[in-house]
Write a structure and sequence with these properties.
The complex is a heterodimer of chains A (110) and B (114).
Chain A: E1 4-7, E2 10-14, E3 19-25, E4 31-37, E5 44-49, E6 55-58, E7 61-65, E8 71-76, E9 85-92, E10 98-100, E11 104-109
Parallel strand pairs in A: 2-11
Antiparallel strand pairs in A: 1-3, 3-8, 4-5, 4-9, 6-7, 7-8, 9-10, 9-11
Chain B: E1 5-7, E2 10-13, E3 19-24, E4 31-37, E5 44-50, E6 53-56, E7 65-68, E8 75-79, E9 88-95, E10 104-105, E11 109-113
Classes of the chains: A mainly beta (110), B mainly beta (114).
Chain lengths: 110, 114
């Protein structure tokens, strides 16, 4: 089946730093969703992207739908301690099939 | 607007026993999803309903897993009999439809099979 790759797998950053992570696929997608998951909770939707090249912001978060339709990027500016968690990308292809990436684990050091 | 509700939050059973999970989606959401999330991995789609019809169940182990959404609202996922490898968090999500399909997740049910 389809697979998404996320990088990095994990990252440790200092509070106040900016963060970049990405998600890639060998297949073309028509939707990219970015989620954050805290321990013991379900994933929470951060940003949804529906068009190639689309750039969308949600507070300190910015995500982009790659022009090739095979990748997406998430940036977090001026990180704070509550940004700690696991960030998942999810893509939907033209056959309406959904797949999640393995996640990027973010740790923020004070 | 109330979120996706799931119960129970935790369940511990022995292998070969049966278990059922319940999900109530956000009001008005036509599409409902069940995911399995094994520790350290991303969610894996088990089954997707559009109203009370199945859209995708290609990754559902049908010899032991079953799911239904009889009235197009709430849904149950059953495992019978459970295996050790079924230990995971079972997440339910819903979305308005299949076009603008932002999925909203419930808190999940953590299943431990001993």
């Amino acid at each position: 089946g389809q697979q998404l790759n996320q990088s990095p797998q994990s990252m440790f950053i200092q509070e106040g730093e900016d963060v970049s992570m990405n998600c890639t696929s060998s297949s073309i997608f028509n939707t990219w969703l970015w989620y954050k998951q805290d321990p013991g909770e379900g994933p929470v939707l951060l940003i949804a992207l529906y068009k190639a090249g689309e750039l969308t912001s949600n507070g300190r978060l910015t995500a982009q739908f790659g022009i090739t339709r095979k990748d997406s990027f998430l940036n977090i500016s001026a990180s704070i301690p509550s940004d700690v968690g696991i960030y998942f990308c999810a893509g939907q292809d033209y056959g309406q099939n959904f797949v999640f990436g393995p996640g990027t684990r973010l740790s923020v050091l004070p | 607007e109330a979120g996706v509700a799931q119960s129970p939050r935790y369940k511990i059973i022995e292998k070969r026993q049966s278990v059922a999970f319940w999900c109530n989606p956000i009001s008005g959401h036509a599409t409902l999803y069940w995911y399995q999330q094994i520790l350290g991995q991303g969610p894996k789609l088990l089954i997707q309903f559009q109203n009370n019809g199945v859209v995708d169940d290609s990754q559902l182990p049908k010899d032991r897993f079953s799911a239904e959404r009889l009235k197009g609202v709430d849904s149950t996922l059953k495992i019978q009999p459970a295996k050790l490898e079924d230990s995971a968090v079972y997440l339910c999500a819903s979305s308005r439809g299949q076009v603008y399909n932002e999925q909203f997740f419930g808190p999940g049910t953590r299943l431990t099979v001993l």
